[in-house]
């Protein structure tokens, strides 16, 4: 098969490209700066210079591929306009180009944030009405809606992963490992927090399954939409314990009153505006952090695609620690 992968230099994208090439598939990677994609080139991927925010640059990337996997996007930005320009308008541009050239299956990797938080003990399912609480989540839902507008012309599916972790992770694990190494993992708020997780290897397997057999989205409704999760409802304490065990450390989770987190996020947001460099901890991110549960059910993917997540938290944490240690990152 011939694949086009956007966001190929990212955490999930690089893992997907590696897996596809190992299968013997052909991979074309859309990259803004080929100089920063040497790892992909070394793997054997063909690099195409382009940007989803520049529709003209997509014309050479999309033709003659069997599958388009759209991973590119912003998880942090200084303004709402930036988020929507890349996440929503960028998806529209890519979908329009794919629809015009015809023939390719389109897989959008969205986010649980597009659906919104869940209730403790009641994970989100695809038939639930989306209710994003952050600008990021709203921009990802807008991306889904942009894709849906081409439903009559494009065979497309949507995947909504929760927290993704594993080798090459640049956000979640580095922060968690830094705290776990010290034996003190902070938690925002005094109450229980619940999360779904998916290891990057299991997510990549689902992307491939959806590309091959995923149902087609329509203009509204749950058809062709799949949540991705390993099926376990994790507390923050369980995640911290998993990280510390993998590192060979002992320690404790220390709850931090939520107002302290808001102050820290406010200071981080102010600093980001001054430096022009967006930070992952922001006032918008606090809209997500304050929620009691971010869980989802992947039963639909299991049922329709016979997809089975295989990586446990303990195994995933051990493998991640090994990868980070080999590179002197933890």
Structural account:
- The protein has a domain at about 1-170 and about 195-230 and about 295-310: 3-Layer(aba) Sandwich (Rossmann fold), CATH 3.40.50.
- It contains 12 helices and 14 strands.
- The radius of gyration is 19 Å and the shape is globular.
- The strands form 4 sheets. The chain has a 7-stranded parallel beta sheet with strand order 3-2-1-4-5-6-11, with helices on both faces. Strands 12-9-14 form a 3-stranded mixed beta sheet.
- Helix 3 links the parallel strand 4 and strand 5.
- With about 325 residues, it is α/β, with parallel strands linked by helices.
- The model has no long low-confidence stretch (mean pLDDT about 95).
- About 45% of the residues lie in helices and about 15% in strands.
- The chain has helices at about 10-20, 40-45, 80-100, 110-115, 135-150, 170-180, 200-215, 235-245, 260-275, 285-290, 300-305, 315-325; strands at about 1-5, 25-30, 45-50, 65-70, 105-110, 155-160, 165, 185-190, 195, 195-200, 225, 235, 250-255, 295.
Oligomer: single chain
* Annotated CATH architecture of the domain at 2-169 and 197-230 and 293-310: 3-Layer(aba) Sandwich
Number of strands: 14
Q: What about the largest sheet?
A: 7 strands, parallel
The top-level CATH class of the domain at 2-169 and 197-230 and 293-310 is Alpha Beta
What's the shape?
globular
